[in-house]
Design a protein that fits this description.
By secondary structure, the chain is α+β, with helices and mostly antiparallel strands. It is built from 21 helices and 25 strands.
Length: about 700
Amino acid sequence: MAGLEAGCFEVNTTSPHSMLHERLQLQRDCTVTPTVIRQGHWVIIKNVITGGHIRLHRDLWLAVRQFEGNITVQEWVKAHAATFGDQRLLSVIAQLRRLAILNVESAQINIESTASRFFVRLNPLMLRLALFNPTPLLNFLCRVTAFVSVRGFFTALSIVALSALYTLMMHWSAVIDFWQGIEARTQLWYVVILYPLTKFLHELAHGLALRRLGGEVPEAGISFLVLFPMPYIDATDAWSLHRKPRMLVSAAGMLMDLLIACCGILIWSNLSSGVIANLAFTAALMGAVSILLFNANPLLKFDGYYLLEDALDSPGLARRSQAFYRYLFKRHVLNMHTSAPPVVARGEKLWLLAYGASGTLYRYFIAAVICIYLISILHELGVFLALFSLIPLFVFPAYRFLRFLFLSTELANLRIRAITVTAVLGLFVVSFIFTVPLPSSTRTQGVVWVEKQAEVYAAQTGQLEEIFVNNGDVVKKGQPLMRLGSLALDSDLEQKLAAVRLARIDVGRYRQENPSKAAVALITLRQSESEVEHATEQINKLTIRSPAHGRVAMGSGQISTGLQIPQGTLLAYVVDADERVIRAVVDQAALGSVESGILEVHVRLAQSMRSALQASVARQVPSGSHKLPSAALANTGFDGFDVDQIDAQGEVRTLEKVFHIELVLDDSTDELQQVPMGTRAYVTLQHAQEPLAHRWIRLSRRLLIKHLSV
């Protein structure tokens, strides 16, 4: 839904004084929709040609309607200044002119506005290609779905959602295993196949909801958001609806995503592994990610933002929050007492303050992410495209602010003070960024490990019947640690013992009667006794003994009596050293901070996250490698390092180089001895304090070296 997005400071090339003598006339191609906002009567005026719209109070709109080309701005302001204030009236006129809702017969060319519109239309990161009129398709769908009421749809969706939620709860471990089992490249192809369809259904839901509520949907096509093609449907006519129906139109796309995600989970749970199951699972994942990260996020201009606007009954929330901050800056920083405050209803100030700050910070964060993404995949071309993301956020606002500072008639008597205050604030910000040291830290992960250790494996398959030692006990070589039981080995030994007894009887019987048969029976006896000896050795192996002197460290898995233990299972370690270490790794992004020095190290073990343990660096490998110390550090979809492959020997290779650091806990040896080997450790490396500028320069240099070879 297109709207009016104001910059930091609005200064028209045509000054307010020259505008006072112009005769204005309302644009004929405009729609006016009355609405009630916070118990007040307002109108929403929309330019049908450009799609831009603005909200005005009904009384102010009645005054604006007097512009029919026969009255000057000066005469109009003089007639209504006592009611609305001259500054507010001039501000409204400037906005209506910018939206082309008011035509100016003697208007001068606004170079900045023209350049901004030209930049937006040719911005390769936000292109739109209109393809067709979806009205015939939507009319057909309206007839087909006429029997489905809103209440019926929500009832059916609730049933499907609850069923999918129950399925997730019952098969959560299977969901994680299935996710980890899908190869990344394969899943990428599934996303490429399904994304156009799911996004089309998302936009179709918006259009269908709007059409059923009586709105018009004149256009559909493809938009390119950061070079990624996305279907779109023009639903700007939703502004002609009342608040609650408009909320339904905004939520329709997310409801479709939720329906796709739920159906995907239900289909996946009822199919065996295969292409259809993989596609269903990917569709479910895409629907959930689309809702949680994008569409429901009110800080982005997607469905969640418009829902928040209507839920708060505060149209133009982003634009008005910026206008409110501009007023506060003018009034309290530049001391402009004549600055007219924006129209703010009761209870709106807190929302405007909160959204203005969070929305601005998030917008700059997203711009940084987009720039890094473009440079990483397109290199030199990415630098050029990144400018289209940075210029609207930095260049245009700076240009508008400087024009306001040096040319605005509002600062006629305060210009020197305004320039001085701005210069002092700018100097303070620059000094803070370049000179004030701030805490710096790197967070990474590692595993509990010991370089000198003996591994204890199950020599035979059996059921764990008894554990003789506890984790951390000191044992001697050959001391029993655990005992397994095996009915198969016991039965086999009984059979071989019976064969020995039978052979002995034959030897005694044939010794007097037939010496030759006695000799054969004696050979059979010796063979049976050998088999008994071998079976006894196998049973003796069921008793797990320590292979060396040291301290017992149980494996990271859950070992308890009654479990069936396969042959070759790693059961425990016997540590020959009194101290264990933590083998941590850092990626290339954190290498610069690590090389600058490590002052303190804090470790939180996975089994006791509340307590932070002090540690120190014992060894640091200066060169990078593609090896991880443990598969536990591999990315499982939630966290960890991206893995290229895991070979037959279990060696984990990362996509990018990592750097190894060996840590030793300070005065916490006894506590660490009780921790199973391979336990994940969360490590915080504290560095020397440094200004923000140093970090940004280091990050930029690493990015340029990596992707541009600068």
